[in-house]
């Protein structure tokens, strides 16, 4: 099981530190955390907003509507807690960075293991195909088999690229939607851009 990015109570303290810099709405807090850790940690609305609600219940932050957005600000009581735990705060960023690095390493190892297994299976399939070719057209079939193996490997790479693009775009869109900043222009740009890209890819495939 992967470790939590923040230790118990640490995200609460980190949110207070961000609000001590200036008032922010929920999307800005999620964006600040994402930027702080280079995109390796992307907090969800389900993680941030319940903690903001608890901070408000404890009298450590206030919230105020600003149009369609809710802006959170630290209170004097929040600053008192922040100052009383200043030493603890200084160690949080290093701990979080280590946790994020560990999570990234786990993902990287999983991907590497999957790719190694795939390549081994493809190599075995190619070897079996070569060993099974016995007719006068053996070389031609061998070339065809090799081309198919190469194409399958390229398909895996393409699938990985599409999945990575989809996951990263969905994360960005989800954060924008939670913050109320997802515009019609953005959705139209995505639709037009993907249609154009699909046409160009089909052209390269001879379709």
Treating each run of at least 4 consecutive H or I residues as one helix, how many helices?
7
Q: Any idea of the CATH class of the domain at 10-95?
A: Mainly Alpha
Number of distinct beta strands: 3
CATH topology of the domain at 10-95: Arc Repressor Mutant, subunit A
Radius of gyration: 25 Å
- Element-by-element helix/strand order: HEHHEEHHHH
What best-fitting shape do the alpha-carbon axes yield? elongated
> What separation lies between the terminal Cα atoms?
45 Å
**Broad structural category:** mainly alpha
Q: How helix-rich are the residues, as a percent range?
A: over 70%
Give the mean pLDDT: 78
Question: Uncertain segments of ≥5 residues (pLDDT<50)?
Answer: none
Name the CATH superfamily assignment of the domain at 10-95: Winged helix-like DNA-binding domain superfamily/Winged helix DNA-binding domain
Question: How are the strands of the biggest sheet laid out side by side?
Answer: 1-3-2
Q: Major beta sheet, specifics?
A: 3 strands, antiparallel
Protein name: PadR family transcriptional regulator
InterPro entries: ArsR-like_HTH, Tscrpt_reg_PadR_N, WH-like_DNA-bd_sf, WH_DNA-bd_sf
Pfam family, one: PadR
Organism: Amnibacterium flavum
């Amino acid at each position: 099981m992967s470790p939590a990015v923040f230790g118990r109570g640490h995200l609460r303290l980190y949110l207070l530190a961000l609000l001590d810099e200036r008032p922010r709405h929920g999307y800005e807090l999620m964006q600040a955390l994402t930027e702080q850790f280079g995109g390796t940690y992307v907090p969800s609305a389900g993680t941030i907003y319940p903690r903001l609600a608890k901070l408000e219940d404890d009298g450590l932050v206030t919230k105020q509507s600003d149009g369609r957005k809710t802006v959170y600000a630290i209170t004097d009581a929040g600053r008192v807690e922040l100052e009383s735990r200043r030493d603890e705060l200084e160690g949080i960023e290093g701990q979080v960075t280590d946790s994020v690095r560990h999570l990234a390493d786990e993902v990287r190892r999983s991907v590497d293991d999957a790719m190694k297994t795939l390549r081994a299976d493809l190599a075995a399939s190619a070897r079996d195909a070569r060993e099974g070719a016995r007719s006068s057209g053996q070389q031609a079939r061998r070339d065809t088999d090799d081309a198919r193996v190469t194409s399958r490997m390229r398909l895996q790479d393409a699938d990985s690229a599409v999945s990575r693009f989809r996951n990263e775009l969905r994360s960005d869109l989800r954060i924008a939607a939670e913050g109320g900043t997802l515009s019609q222009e953005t959705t139209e740009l995505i639709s037009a851009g993907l249609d154009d890209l699909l046409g160009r890819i089909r052209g390269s495939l001879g379709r």
